[in-house]
Amino acid sequence: MKLEDMILVVENRKGTETNFILNLTDYMGEALKIWGGYAEDMAGAIGTLYETKEGGKDWSDLYVSANKSIHASFCGSEPKLRGFLAGHFNDGEWSFDTERCSKECLDVLRIYNIKPDGQPQFPYLHYERVEHTFHAGEVLRNMNGNDYRVLAALSKKNLLLMSELDSQIIVGQGVQLYERYPKDERPDSDSRVTGIEWDHGVYLGNDITGLDFDILKQEYGEPDRVGNVSDLRNMVRRDFWMQKNVEQKERLPHRVRNAARDCLENTFGTSEPDVFDKMLDKGMYDGMYGMKEEQKKITGQPR
Questions:
Q1: Which of 9, 71, 153, 237 stands the most exposed, by the fewest C-beta atoms within 10 Å?
Q2: Angle, nearest 10°, between helix axes 292-299 and 273-281?
Q3: Distance CA 133, CA 210 (A)
Q4: Which alpha helices (H) appear in the chain, and where do they start and end?
Q5: What is the distance between the alpha carbons of residues 266 and 262, in angstroms, rounded to a whole number?
């Protein structure tokens, strides 16, 4: 059974709440007891429950009498499960009833190394590293149950990530993919949990428009590998625009922008993008800027 298929249930009797976890079959059994076997009412209850899985609502509500109600929701994620076990979804006095839980659900708690009180059963899990090539666009789940979208693979192990929960942008350094399962057990599709962990995270805020990707690549990426002329020209183009972007940022002091322009003139023979493109296409930079006379013909006299 998968964690996402478990149903979190809160039963309220005269203001006292009892929490337990059921599989779908057992929950349907509870619904049948409430509605006395009326299939139409039960179908409506199950339909409302599935809205919690599809994001239409947080909880479904069944009112049995004036002083008894049942609230249920598909689990959805590990953080939601931990919050449920800690009583974050309860309004008053509450308890967790292990005896009313489906056995399959208790097995899921064991697989995720969680006791019914929400505390870990540590040490109990085995981690095994998995070889994986990360790429932009994929969504990764860490071992705490949070999802991150890969914005860029800066290097083999350094990723630019965005949290699906709050849009926080993070550089994950030393990212590795692992499989986790209970110790001393043969793993299967139900007991195996796959997720990432990283050595260190650099948190960059929520505004992606304020990021300088050239600087991120330079600081956290791998050195450029030049295997042919095309690679060389791509590297030269990135170097030019790294300086050009500094020159064009109006909020920077004039002395900084002037220094960037001087660097462009000294390194590339020009600070004008259209002139730079002509020189790049003619191979002016392929020989480490050795053809100064040809550069002068294209750029004209110094201003």
A1: 237
A2: 140
A3: 27
A4: 24-35, 39-53, 78-85, 103-111, 213-220, 229-248, 254-268, 273-281, 292-299
A5: 6
Closest CA to 9 of 54, 35, 45, 41: 45
Strand 200-203 to strand 16-22: parallel, antiparallel, or no bridges (unpaired)? unpaired
Q: What is the pairing mode between strands 176-182 and 125-130?
A: antiparallel
CA quadruple 49, 53, 59, 61: dihedral, nearest 10: 0
What are phi and psi for residue 18, nearest 5 degrees? -125, 125
pLDDT in tens, 242-265: 788 888 888 778 888 888 899 899
d(C-alpha 112, C-alpha 3), whole Å = 9
Q: Kindly state the DSSP code that residue 120 receives in the 8-state scheme.
A: B
pLDDT digits (tens, 9 = 90+) for 2-48: 888 999 999 998 889 999 999 999 998 877 776 655 545 677 778 88
The two tokens of residue 6 are 């478990």
Place of tokens 């020209």: 233
Decide: 158 and 175 in contact? Cβ < 8 Å: yes
* Exposed / middle / buried, residue 269 (Cβ in 10 Å: 0-12, 13-18, 19+): buried
* Chain position carrying tokens 């009583």: 87
CA distance 248 to 250: 6
| Token digits of residue 65 | 């009498």
Bond preceding residue 182 cis, omega within 30 of 0? no
**Bridge partner residues of 140 (DSSP):** 148
Decide: 20 and 97 in contact? Cβ < 8 Å.
Answer: yes
CB neighbourhood size of 52 (10 A): 20
Query: Which of the residue ranges 32-36, 82-86, 185-189 would you say has the lowest mean pLDDT?
Result: 32-36
Which tokens in the block code for residue 102?
């489906």
